[in-house]
Every structure is written in C-alpha cells, then in structure tokens.
Amino acid sequence: MPKQKTNSSAKKRMRVTGTGKIMREGVNNQHKFEGKSSSRKRRVGTDQVLTGGDRAMARKLLGKLKGR
C-alpha cells in the first residue's frame, strides 16, 4: 500500500510540539506593521493551538506525527 504524503502547504504553516499539540502562527503577522498597535503586534506574534475540527483536519494533512 502506498505511503500517505504530507501536505506541503500544511507543513509550512503548522508545527507539532513534543506533546502532540498542533501550533499555527497568528493571523495578520506578515507585513504592514506600521499601521498596527503594539499590543496587537504582540498578540498576533504568539503561536496559537489548533483545536476541534481544525486539529483533526491538520493531523490528517500532516500525516505521520511526532510525539504521539
């Protein structure tokens, strides 16, 4: 049976922690920082945990996961 390939776009956008959580970058965190407040930049700068249905879909796209 053929191996399942990891989705290339998913592996660029998400990462798996050692405990098995799937993390993603905050939205609006790429460019045009002059127009954003300092508190907003700090808030979107932190990685966020995927939960629920998004987490299930991400696990399927990422294929084999470390930590679990």
TrEMBL record:
Extent of the signal sequence: none
GO annotations of cellular component type: ribosome
Gene3D superfamilies in UniProt: 4.10.410.60
Region (Disordered): 1-45
Entry keywords, A to Z: Ribonucleoprotein, Ribosomal protein
Keyword Repeat: no
Family statement: Belongs to the bacterial ribosomal protein bL35 family.
Protein name: Large ribosomal subunit protein bL35
